[in-house]
Every structure is written in C-alpha cells, then in structure tokens.
Amino acid sequence: MLTDYDLASWTSSMTGEYTKTSEQRAGTAPFMAFELLGGTDTLHLYRHDVESLFYIMVILATHYEIRAPKKGEDGGVWMRHGKLPFERWFDQPSYEDLASFKHTFLSRPGYLDLSPTFEDLRVWLLHLEASFTSGLRMKQRHDFQREMQQYLLAETSEQAGDEVKPAAFDNETLGGYVTYSTLISPARRSTGALKNLVIRYDPPPPLPLSSSGAVQANA
User: Fold this and answer.
1) pTM of the entire structure?
2) Would residue 92 count as lying in a domain?
3) Quick one: pLDDT at residue 177?
4) Cα(7)–Cα(181) distance, integer angstroms
5) 82 within a domain of the structure (yes/no)
6) How far is CA 28 from the centre of its chain?
7) 189 inside domain
8) Chain centroid to CA 42: how far?
9) Could you list the residue range(s) of the whole structural domain that residue 60 is in?
10) d(Cα 155, Cα 151) in Å, to the nearest integer?
C-alpha cells in the first residue's frame, strides 16, 4: 500500500472550516496548480486539473527517457543524468515558494529541455504553455482594469448611489484560454510517435457564426 502524506495534518488542528474535505487542498505539491498552492484560489476548478496534467507531462518529458534493452542493461523508463529542469519544484520549503516558481514559469515561458525520447510532445507542451501564459496575462490585465474602474467610479457612484460592478471575466477558463479544447486540440495535429494517438472523447469544433451572430446551419 502506498500512502502520500505530503498534505497530512494533525486531527487536533483540523478546526472550523478546515474540517470540510471539500475546502482542503488535495494533490501532490509539485504537480498542483499554483493558485491552489498559493491559496489565491480556494475553489478547485477544471483548469487546475489541466494545469496539473501539464506539469505531469513536463516532468515526464524533461526528467525521463525511454531506453531500449542493451547487453547487461534493462530497457524501460530511466531518469536522465545530470541536473534536471524543475528540480527545485521538489524541494521547496513552502507551498507559497513553489507557487511563485510555477507562476514565473507560466508567465515567462522559455525553452523546454526535453528528453529526445519525448521530443514529439514539444508542440503539445508549447501550445498548453502559451494558453496558460495568455490566460494569466488576460486575468492580470482584467484585475488591473477592475481596480482602476472601481477607483475612478468610487466618487461618482457614491454621489449617484449606484453600485460599482466590476467587468465580467471567466476565471474558470482564464478568459476562455484554458478549456478541454485547449488540452485536446494539439493532439489532433500530433506527429511522429503520437500521430495515431487515440482520442476517446473528441467533441466536434463549434459551428461557425455568421456576421449576425447566428449559428450557420450545416450543409
């Protein structure tokens, strides 16, 4: 039996709101979404799972390689030699520090040192990375504009008695940048060893919109 105690807590300290398992953080820290680690998001969203899958793919593709059997050596999945990318994700003293590292990684994407074995994953990983980067930048821009809007309208709203309503933003998908389609779309264009990847759930793309906004009927 394998048991993961990295999020274990003493029952004597589980008081108040932390007694509800639905309100607790769950997962293995190096693969958790940075907003859940940092506590900025308390609600577990679908895009947090997409982010976790992205981290799993990144670690697999940068830390490991697949070797063919050789004389005196077994084949299979092996850890790469030397200094590995993202090693610091596994030895951070706090969730907040790890969240900061991940936020930097997603906000300022760079070169991924992939194992040659997993080179076919590069386009997929870059697509996911770019989606998170764009979504986070959109969220940051929205938060700034909302703060400015509330500041500028504070005095006029007090005089008019109107309530200041912030602009709408889809936080669940980071403004539409992180969805199931974000995760699965690159798989449709996979090449190399992933060319015949089987997609069990592959919904059709949305119907195009006409100039008036109405959905065009299929021919």
Assistant:
1) 0.75
2) yes
3) 94
4) 31
5) yes
6) 14
7) yes
8) 15
9) 23-66+78-194
10) 8
